[in-house]
Amino acid sequence: MTQKKQLIFSRRQMLAGASSFTTLVATGGGFAQELATPAVQRNTSSFSSHKWEDHFETRKNGVILCDTVARYVNYWSEDGTIHKVYPSSVPLSEELTRLGRTEVIRKVDGPSWRPTPSMKERNPDWPDYWPPGPDNPLGTHALYLSWTYYRVHGTGDSRKIGRKSSNGCIGLYNEHIAELFGMAKVGTQVVLI
Q1: Is-contact 161 171, C-beta < 8 A?
Q2: What distance lies between CA 93 and its chain's CA centroid?
Q3: pTM of the predicted protein model
């Protein structure tokens, strides 16, 4: 291997090395001992941390916090024993984004879909109705919110998650919405920030 190739490190190698060096300094361990121990790779999250208390007065009926900037959804159960975090898709633009307090008013397993009038105006070639099924834009499950046309729902298009890709709704991977669907109930509080 040439000297030039020896000096090229991947980002993971650099982070692992920095982590090992930090551990070495923090523990006062010997350099030879630290080099003999392989670095553990960790998958760290970029999600910012939220506390339910910062957004809700109580956890009555469970609470869902949708962070449209960081693009993820938090769920806390009413009794506080469950806290889940899911990556999400968010609306394409500020004009399509609605922020504030709402609640789950209906739950549908296998939802059908109809584009809103404004969606049809922007996309006249879209169908007027889409039956339930694997390619449905609402995915396998939908939590209907008290705001007309707004939902937390699934998607079969995994490329949308983590992106600005919706027409106003919050989208989750189908397996994540299925789990959230099982925990949320009609009356679950929802806040979009």
Answers
A1: yes
A2: 17
A3: 0.74
